[in-house]
């Protein structure tokens, strides 16, 4: 399929939004803690992202679809001078992460529980140092490929909100999605793939903590690709 095929609006097509019933504590965290950490894209666009965080932060990173939150929380804890925005529309995953931070919410973390496009369209130009899209839903059936988050519309959004030289990091264990992403980034023209040899994209990102999705892929005999693209001026 050509790189210009697929969802041209960039709006996400979610699968299910909720799984098993929440425990009482999880429901309370969603009702009481999430509003304290959640961003509101209906509010005025921030002039500077540092104003969104309680901590004194200098760099800014967005993770789209953080799943169980293992990677996001690892990065939040190892990079206290970086402000992280985590987006996850799946209710049970958000509840799991909130359980990790309920005692002492990090000052360098903000969250959003709906479509990532809402936040991407709200953020100021050239405000992010990095965007992480890790093991996104591959929509493996060809007729569903248009639902994949990587699209020309969303790459245009990435290019707008990333600083020149900022990074878009993508990981997947689905070969067709890896190829799809390479083709779309090449077609967009605003990103340079940083790999120089095969080992570069077969090696996990620096400081990679692994995730349950990656472990599942390994158990099922699938390897992973780790793609890094640099935003061109």
TrEMBL record:
<comment type="similarity">
    <text>Belongs to the class I-like SAM-binding methyltransferase superfamily. TrmB family.</text>
</comment>
<dbReference type="InterPro" id="IPR029063">
    <property type="entry name" value="SAM-dependent_MTases_sf"/>
</dbReference>
<dbReference type="GO" id="GO:0008176">
    <property type="term" value="F:tRNA (guanine(46)-N7)-methyltransferase activity"/>
</dbReference>
<feature type="binding site">
    <location>
        <position position="141"/>
    </location>
    <ligand>
        <name>substrate</name>
    </ligand>
</feature>
<dbReference type="InterPro" id="IPR055361">
    <property type="entry name" value="tRNA_methyltr_TrmB_bact"/>
</dbReference>
<dbReference type="Pfam" id="PF02390">
    <property type="entry name" value="Methyltransf_4"/>
</dbReference>
<feature type="binding site">
    <location>
        <position position="137"/>
    </location>
    <ligand>
        <name>S-adenosyl-L-methionine</name>
    </ligand>
</feature>
<dbReference type="InterPro" id="IPR003358">
    <property type="entry name" value="tRNA_(Gua-N-7)_MeTrfase_Trmb"/>
</dbReference>
<keyword id="KW-0808">Transferase</keyword>
<comment type="pathway">
    <text>tRNA modification; N(7)-methylguanine-tRNA biosynthesis.</text>
</comment>
<feature type="binding site">
    <location>
        <position position="115"/>
    </location>
    <ligand>
        <name>S-adenosyl-L-methionine</name>
    </ligand>
</feature>
<dbReference type="GO" id="GO:0043527">
    <property type="term" value="C:tRNA methyltransferase complex"/>
</dbReference>
<feature type="binding site">
    <location>
        <position position="88"/>
    </location>
    <ligand>
        <name>S-adenosyl-L-methionine</name>
    </ligand>
</feature>
<keyword id="KW-0949">S-adenosyl-L-methionine</keyword>
<feature type="binding site">
    <location>
        <begin position="211"/>
        <end position="214"/>
    </location>
    <ligand>
        <name>substrate</name>
    </ligand>
</feature>
<comment type="function">
    <text>Catalyzes the formation of N(7)-methylguanine at position 46 (m7G46) in tRNA.</text>
</comment>
<keyword id="KW-0489">Methyltransferase</keyword>
<feature type="binding site">
    <location>
        <position position="173"/>
    </location>
    <ligand>
        <name>substrate</name>
    </ligand>
</feature>
<feature type="binding site">
    <location>
        <position position="63"/>
    </location>
    <ligand>
        <name>S-adenosyl-L-methionine</name>
    </ligand>
</feature>
<keyword id="KW-0819">tRNA processing</keyword>
<protein>
    <recommendedName>
        <fullName>tRNA (guanine-N(7)-)-methyltransferase</fullName>
        <ecNumber>2.1.1.33</ecNumber>
    </recommendedName>
</protein>
């Amino acid at each position: 399929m050509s790189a210009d095929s697929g969802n041209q609006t960039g709006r996400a097509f979610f699968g299910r939004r909720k799984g098993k019933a929440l425990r009482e504590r999880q429901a309370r965290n969603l009702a009481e803690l999430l509003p304290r950490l959640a961003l509101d894209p209906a509010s005025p666009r921030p002039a500077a992202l540092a104003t969104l965080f309680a901590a004194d932060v200098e760099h800014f990173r967005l993770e789209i679809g953080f799943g169980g939150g293992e990677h996001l929380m690892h990065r939040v804890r190892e990079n206290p001078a970086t402000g992280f925005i985590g987006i996850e529309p799946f209710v049970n995953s958000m509840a799991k992460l909130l359980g990790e931070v309920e005692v002492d919410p990090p000052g360098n973390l903000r969250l959003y529980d709906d479509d990532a496009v809402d936040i991407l369209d709200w953020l100021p130009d050239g405000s992010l140092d990095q965007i992480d899209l890790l093991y996104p839903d591959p929509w493996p059936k060809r007729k569903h490929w248009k639902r994949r988050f990587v699209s020309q519309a969303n790459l245009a959004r990435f290019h707008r909100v990333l600083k020149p030289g900022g990074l878009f990091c993508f990981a997947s264990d689905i070969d067709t999605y890896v190829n799809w992403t390479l083709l779309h980034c090449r077609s967009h023209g605003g990103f340079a793939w940083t790999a120089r040899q095969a080992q570069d994209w077969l090696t996990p990102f620096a400081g990679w903590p692994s995730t349950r999705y990656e472990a599942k892929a390994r158990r099922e005999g699938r390897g992973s690709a780790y793609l890094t693209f640099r935003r061109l001026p």
